[in-house]
Write a structure and sequence with these properties.
Elements: H1 9-22, H2 35-42, H3 46-58, E1 62-65, E2 69-72, E3 81-82, H4 89-95, E4 100-111, H5 114-119, E5 127-137, E6 140-150, H6 167-175, E7 181-190, H7 193-196, E8 206-215, E9 221-229, E10 238-239
Parallel strand pairs: 3-10
Antiparallel strand pairs: 1-2, 4-5, 5-6, 6-9, 7-8, 8-9
Length: 243
Amino acid sequence: MNLIQTRSVSNQVDEILLERIRDGTYSPGNRIPSESELSDEFGVSRATVRTALAKLAANGMIIRKQGNGTFVNARIKDASAHFGNLWDLVQLIEGNGYKSSIRLLSIEQKPATEKEALVLALEPGDELIHFRRLFYADQRAVILADNAIPAILLREPLEKVDGGLHIRDIFKNYFHQKIAFAITDIRSAMIDADAHTYFEGEAGRTILQLDVTFYGMNNLPLAYGVNDFDDSILRLSLVQAWS
């Protein structure tokens, strides 16, 4: 298998292994190939493979058993998220056993608020591309997501942007950026009239609010998002490795 030399090789190996866990190539509880086997397959050193496996182990995705090999965490299916994909709303929904879909409510360019400018290291009034999207679990609305991305990063005409895509594909296709990591702040909040327009249930109840800042490979902020998360339908359970 040929890897792209302009990107961190260990990160590429980690991404491939993670995708194999997600798509069931390596299923929960089963052993994955040895460091030597993966090294031969990818054409990289065992040290590179070891680095990638260490990252997966730190995220609780795999368990390394001394003298017995490395196994996909058999309990991974019990968690709706792990720390490596907490911001991935599609996986959160599918981790709860639902079919996910995304409806674009609006996309527009407008000036940054003072808070948005602070989070994104911009000046107040700098232009942002605002996405408002509604995520469904089967046919039921469960997450109202607002995201703001600096307009200066946009590399394609705004009218060509497909807001129904996965967030990583939006960044890749229209901003030519790759998300390296995200920091998520989770708090309980009273559902407001805006969110209640889309969600079922009584007015005035509490929901979760996920404030997410996405960062690029250079550690600079790419986007800021506020997600209203209906935890009466979706559970937010995390898997975390302990050393």
